[in-house]
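Reviewer 2 asked us to include a model.

Predict the structure of this chain.
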Amino acid sequence: MTRTTSIDTPAAAGAIIRARRQERGLSQQFLAEAAGVSRKFIVDLEAGHERAELGKTMAVLHTLGLSLTATEPIPRGSDYDPARRDYAETFTQLIDSRDFEFAIKMLADYATASLKAGRPLLQRSPRLKDPHWSAALAGITNYTARRLGQPAPPWTRRIRPLNEAWMPAESYRSVREPMKKLAMSETPPELAAMNVFIRERSLATI
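Predicted model (structure tokens):
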């Protein structure tokens, strides 16, 4: 009989990951490279830090031959499928409710889902009231189109660049100067052209 273990805290997940890594005789650096993450991420994950990114965590689990189990079936439908999600409506709701932190996470979700789908998923303008977020979505749409070797949807050409440099993270927290400089140096050209600055590694996981 296969024994199942409940993983209900970050510390429990970290302990299991560390034990499996050691069982296989892997160094933290080797595991990091195999899973496509940084060694610091592995260190934090094994230590049970609560802010570990789920996508990266799943990559580490997969590399170690581990998986998560749930007592409930996985929900189905467009709300739960990134490739079928109505991103225009999603961003409209998030910006209207000023849930900027989650909106930033959805920017990455949109970029990753578009790359996996093989096309920018926003084929029509999201028609947001806030020009900052419109510029961000136009930049990301152009970025995914370029990576996929496709022309960008026509609506992106109607979105004007911002007059001043803007980092979405500043909509809900302060960003220190060294991080600003790093973000600006690692922003894809399509976003920089819109005067929006997000590190490429924060945008897409594939």
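The chain has nine helices and no strands. The mean pLDDT is 86. We have added this to the supplementary material.
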